[in-house]
Amino acid sequence: MILLPDSDREEIGAEIARQEERTSGEIVAVLAAQSGSYRLLPLFLAAFIALLIPLLLLYLPGLSEGRWVVWSADKIYFVQLIVFVILAFLLSVRPIRYWIVPDSLKIKWARAHALEQFASQEMHTTQGRTGVMIFVSVVERYAEILADQAIYEKVSKDEWQHIVADLVAQIQKKDPKNGFVEAVKRAGELLHTHFPPGTEDDNELPNHLIVIE
What pLDDT, in 10s, does the model give residues 160-182? Predict the structure, then answer.
């Protein structure tokens, strides 16, 4: 899955570099194809439905040649196995698999992935605790901006949420590049206001868009 062409990634990275010249804060952008594979859910659903097959066949005997007959155990097992295999295959097809996953589960996985990336990108290790991460997970249609402690003390979550809402709108319009660029610009404005350039502005975190495919 190609999320963004190289030219778009470079443009986003260049915008991050421009904004970081105006602030002592650090901006990191992460684009993930998905936050979870959800491979076990299709198997669970297929197994659950297959387990119901014996009940249906035992209590709903078929009519054959004018008389009621009861299904034999081997026939029930065969039908049960076929149902499981077919459903497991169909429900594992990527679009169907993502469609059957409850939204609450998608949000839970995406949120966990965002926190994991915040830690793995060492956002909490900047000198002034002024790291900001813009995170998007495509399959889950989830976006979030996470900021370190020093930023949350001066910038409210509502301000970040407005940026997230506009970023999501751009992604829904199939324009993720401009969505990221605009989000980086607005994040840079907030950081410039509250965290102007200092005497020790080391570039501590990567400026390019981090893509997880």
Answer: 999 999 999 998 888 889 999 99
pLDDT score for 158? 86
Going across the sheet that includes 142-147, the strands are: 142-147, 131-137, 26-32, 210-212
pLDDT tops 60 at residue 63: no
The Cα–Cα gap between 55 and 200 comes to 71
Give the integer Cα–Cα distance in Å for 125 and 85.
Answer: 49
DSSP for 62-131, please give it: EEETTEEEPPPHHHHHHHHHHHHHHHHHHHHSHHHHHHHS-HHHHHHHHHHHHHHHHHHTTGGGSTTS-E
The predicted model scores a pTM of 0.82
Q: Rounded to whole angstroms, how far apart are CA atoms 165 and 143?
A: 8
> Domain 6-37+102-212, what architecture?
Roll (3.10)
β pairing state of 142-147 and 62-64: unpaired
Strands 142-147 and 131-137: antiparallel
In degrees rounded to 5, what are phi and psi of residue 201?
-100, 65
Beta carbons of 29 and 195 less than 8 angstroms apart: no
Q: Which pLDDT band, with edges at 50, 70 and 90, does 133 fall under?
A: very high
Residue spans per domain, the chain: 6-37+102-212, 40-100
